[in-house]
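Example 332.
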Amino acid sequence: MILEEILKDEYRVAIANNGKEALEYLRGAGEMPKIILLDVMMPEMTGRELFDILKAEESLRRIPVIFITAENDSEDELLAAGAVDFINKPFVPRRVKLRVRNQVALKNYSDNLEQMVAEKTAEATATLDNALQGLANVIEHRDIESGEHVKRTQLYVQALCNYLIGATSVYAGELRRLDAPTIVKAMALHDVGKIAIPDRILLKPGRLDDEEFAVMKTHTLRGKEIIGELGDVNSSLYLRHCEDICYGHHERYDGKGYPQGLRGGDIPLSARIASLADVYDALVCARVYKAALPYRDAISIIQEGRGAQFDPVLTDAVVTLQDEFEDIARRH
Ligand SMILES: [Fe+2]
Ligand SMILES: [Fe+2]
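Predicted structure in complex with fe (ii) ion:
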């Protein structure tokens, strides 16, 4: 009551008579207090016990605590535990006001900093998203791939991820960690490296000869390079998936793919999924040099590649999802 009297002109003061009451108040509070004044000596729960509970709770641990101490309390120990300051009994009103004012100012300062960092991070993420979206548009505008192919492959990837997570497959946990929606977004960039392929090869009507095909294959590496220039792939899951998919979507499960000849689980999961979506769509759609295959035949070809070109678990998932895949292909 004395403290309230000292502080009430400058601050809104909430009072709790013991630790339990304080916790109930804090856990139900819409707005967290800027500061807590906590008496070491309290009935039921000591100030130190309450302090330890506060520090263990994510939503409460950042509220600064000033301890109210009597002469024989161990201030060093409380400081070491993370208390920001002390007010000694008996209270000297001027000193109480100054200490509270200092700590509230510090707290405001650190809250502002935290918010600025959060805003900057959101800004950087938005910029990256825009850059990647811009690149996806370039793919479409340069006739590298049709916008429909890009959209369909994303939808197959989404269907596969949903199924694999929902069916609690062996990949459910990994996909949750990798954040499946980000893999779907990254799929739009799988052939971005083709930006760097000369038109005479890229737009050639008909099959490529060996030398041309060798150049075409470099779109995987070019894609990795383009993504790498946008930022550090270790700092963004989105960039990480883009790079993995660009570089790895022509790898084969048996190690006979390109560019690295990676095998099985060494190929990033996102790239293994991308490969199935990409090949399925290539099979069921007409290209300049080939007719579209019936959906059933496409599934048979995919099944033949089980464990050779494709991851067996993912192949089985595509077979299970064949009606959904066909639906996507027909509709988009
Ligand atoms: Fe490709
Ligand atoms: Fe593709």
